Amino acid sequence: MEKQNKNTGKIVVGILGIVLLIGIFLGVYHFFGPKALAGEKAYTLTVVDDKGNTKEYEATTDAEYLGQALEELQKRDDFTMEGEEGDYGFFLTSVNGLQAVYDTDGAYWAVYVNDEYAQNGVDSQPVNDQDAFSLVYETAAE
Predict the structure, then answer these.
(1) 8 A C-beta contact, residue 61 and residue 39
(2) pLDDT single digits (tens) 4-25
(3) I need a labelling partner for 24 at 20 to 30 A (CA). Which of 6, 65, 80, 137 fits?
(4) 47, 48, 104: which is closest to 74 by C-alpha?
(5) Distance (Å, rounded) from C-alpha 100 to C-alpha 116?
(6) Which residues have C-beta within 8 Å of that of residue 123, sequence separation ≥ 6?
C-alpha cells in the first residue's frame, strides 16, 4: 500500500510539474511572442444620422465580417453600436447613440457596401480591402 501511495505521489508531482512548465512557456510566449500588427484590410465607415449629418471613420482590420470590424472600431474610437440577435442575424438598433425603432416610426439602420445596399447583415457581411461601408438611418416607405 505504501508503494502505491509513493507512486501516486510521484504521478501527481509529475503532472503538477508539467502544468507549471506549460504555464511558464505560455507566459514567456505571451510576453515575448509576436505582437499583432495593424489589420491587413483598410476600410472606411460613414455613419449618416437622421438629420443627414455624417461621421467618417478610417480603420484597418483582419476581421472577416463587418460586425467583427465594428466591434474592434468600438473599442478604439468614438463609434458605438447596439443591436440584438434576430432570426436573420445581428440587427443594429442604435449607432452612435441614435436609436432606430422600426416598430414606432419605421426607422432602421441600413447597411451599404461600396454605395450599394448590402445583401448581408453586419454579422455576415464580408470585409474586403478598401471597402466603403455606410450605416444610414432610414425609414421604411409606407
Answers:
(1) yes
(2) 666 787 888 889 889 888 988 7
(3) 6
(4) 47
(5) 21
(6) 65, 66, 67, 89, 90
Q: Does pTM top 0.85 for this prediction?
A: no
What does DSSP assign to residue 67? H
Coil, helix or strand at residue 58 = strand
Secondary structure element (H or E) that encloses residue 25, with its range: helix 2-32
User: What's the number of CA atoms in the CB half-sphere (13 Å) around residue 124?
Assistant: 10
State the cell numbers at 114.
461600396
For residues 58 and 79, the answer to whether their CB atoms sit within 8 Å is no
pLDDT digits (tens, 9 = 90+) for 20-77: 889 887 777 677 765 444 578 999 999 999 999 999 999 999 999 999 999 999 999 8
Of 138, 118, 137, 142, nearest to 128 by C-alpha is 118
3-state secondary structure of 27: helix
**How many degrees, rounded to 5, is the angle at CA 99 between CA 134 and CA 116?**
20
Which residue's C-alpha cell is 441600413?
Answer: 110
- On whether the CB atoms of residues 135 and 109 are closer than 8 A, the answer is yes
Note the Cα 126 to chain centre separation in Å. 12
